[in-house]
Amino acid sequence: MAKAPGFKQVLKAVFGAFVGVQSEQQRQQDFQTTTIWPYLVAGIFAVVVFVALLLALVSWVVAG
Question: How far is CA 37 from the centre of its chain?
Fold first, then answer.
């Protein structure tokens, strides 16, 4: 198993999963890491930011 992923690798993996585009090599590298926690934290944070942006956009459109 590989060591814990770096910040850049976690962001790249989460963004790729969020968009739905990721290379097989990157996917294999992600599944070889020893811990899931950085991916969970980054994924939850990305979802919260996405939902907040959607709510702000909807509020802006409805108010305008």
Answer: 12
Closest alpha carbon to 22 in 4, 40, 9: 9
Phi-psi region of 35 (alpha: psi -120 to 50; beta: other; left: phi over 0): beta
Query: Helix axis angle, 37-63 relative to 7-19, nearest 10°?
Result: 50
Q: To 10 degrees, the CA torsion angle through 31, 14, 41, 46?
A: -160
Model's pTM, two decimal places? 0.78
pLDDT per residue over 23-47, tens digit each?
A: 888 888 888 888 889 999 999 999 9
Alpha carbons 23 and 26: distance in angstroms, whole number: 5
